[in-house]
């Protein structure tokens, strides 16, 4: 056993901090991207029921297929669709043109309706069934690969679970709630000595420590000075969240980084699998989504006008409610989009209808647009990426010409 290995093990035992396992140990540099706009991507794990979130009350088949779930009044949108009451805090954004939706969307995934395969394909963005050997990097990482000179701090994967969405060759930073490296000056000096003969690793470790110190200093400064109105509003929302919930911690961290050099943040929200008692289970997930978008809006302040938020799910759910007053795995679903940089105040997409003959496999909402097309339009407008890059590298083979432009 080498002297270096023994010294390193002794250091880890002494400090009680597994530096090698830290999600912050990514080579980082605070280099600005060549754009000033921001993108936040939320993966809604479990297959959100878009028909309950944005309800097609103007379709004569809606009430008949959902005798209990269609009951009750939603919030008015455009005369045909209404919004689930649990998203009431976001309704003012709709009125301001800063909240929108795309209905009847899906990935190319069909028929098997597996959460795992559906989520993998959504994040890979390749258009191929994952069982046939699709590329294992994510579409956001491929986008970063297409822009030369970006460093890890440009994009953050946030949360405890791996995000295929940002996996790949491009450098990406990672953070999860509760992560904080706190070392004494003696321990810091020991790091320098342990990695003295390995300057690359030494630089990465020290940079990670500096990042956590920067974050802690910024948090302390805001707490001490009440930096601005946006911070006050954001802190109030954090205080109201039960147990300072993880979804709010992730949103708060995203805000903190997006105020600086970070331009892209991504994380996931669970709780969308609603096979039974959907009237009680779905509102909990919707309140979390509302909390996250609301905190991004409050915390980013003026930067909200330069921000786009895309919330995507692996597939939709059945048109008919089941015997447990829930819905089962389906096909066509809903994308949620928010932010001052996107064209909101509209339910995008071509509505296919809910009569049985119009359904996919006579059970699901028929997809009329690829969900990747809306993501491509958002990146085209936010980052100025060409159609050649988006259809060639980011979403191979995708034709998004029929999707509406989403950025002003």
Layout of SSEs?
Blueprint: H1 3-15, E1 38-44, H2 50-53, E2 54-55, H3 62-65, E3 75-76, E4 82-83, H4 91-95, E5 99-106, H5 115-124, H6 139-145, E6 155-158, E7 173-175, H7 185-194, H8 199-225, H9 229-240, H10 246-258, E8 264-269, H11 278-300, E9 307-313, E10 333-338, E11 347-348, E12 369-370, H12 371-383, H13 387-394
Parallel strand pairs: 1-8, 1-9, 5-11, 5-12, 6-7, 6-8
Antiparallel strand pairs: 2-4, 3-4, 5-10, 9-10
Helix pairs in contact: 1-7, 6-13, 9-11, 10-11
Describe the structure.
There is one protein chain. The protein is an alpha/beta fold and 408 residues long. The protein has one domain (35-179, 229-394): Alkaline Phosphatase, subunit A (3-Layer(aba) Sandwich). The chain has helices at residues 3-15, 50-53, 62-65, 91-95, 115-124, 139-145, 185-194, 199-225, 229-240, 246-258, 278-300, 371-383, 387-394; strands at 38-44, 54-55, 75-76, 82-83, 99-106, 155-158, 173-175, 264-269, 307-313, 333-338, 347-348, 369-370. The strands form 2 sheets. Strands 1, 5, 6, 7, 8, 9, 10, 11 and 12 form a 9-stranded mixed beta sheet that branches. Strands 2-4-3 form a 3-stranded antiparallel beta sheet. A hairpin with a 5-residue loop joins strand 3 (75-76) and strand 4 (82-83). The termini are far apart.
